[in-house]
Design a protein that fits this description.
mainly alpha, 2 domains, 4 helices, 73% helix
């Protein structure tokens, strides 16, 4: 069962990556020539690499398991998703197509609760 994603992976997929994309788009809007052609690809790659390193450092400093869910709906959705995934993993295995589909569906459900202002 250790192959299941933890809350840090879900946070990274749903929140962190969206924040990085938003920051890069704001950077390109503020300094348009940085987004031009090969320069944009290089700047985007460097920004992504720096964001990865920053996330890894933050993850070591902050245990995301200790952050309490403020939104009760998110907590209930996460709990329900966890139980369903554990049942499917136990019955059919984590490599089964059913498990992969359920994991994808639950990520999409959880994504509806995460919004950027």
């Amino acid at each position: 069962m250790s192959d299941l994603p933890d809350i840090g992976d879900i946070f990274k997929d749903l929140v962190w990556n969206a924040l990085v994309k938003l920051a890069i788009s704001k950077l390109f809007a503020a300094v348009p020539w940085l987004g031009w052609g090969p320069i944009g690809v290089i700047v985007g790659w460097i920004a992504g690499m720096l964001a990865e390193q920053l996330y890894d450092a933050m993850r070591m400093a902050v245990d995301l398991q200790l952050i309490a869910f403020k939104n009760d709906k998110l907590r209930k959705a996460f709990d329900g998703a966890s139980v369903t995934l554990k049942i499917i993993a136990k019955d059919k295995g984590i490599t089964s197509p059913e498990f992969q589909e359920a994991r994808k569906a639950h990520r999409e459900v959880l994504a509806t609760f995460v919004r950027l202002a």
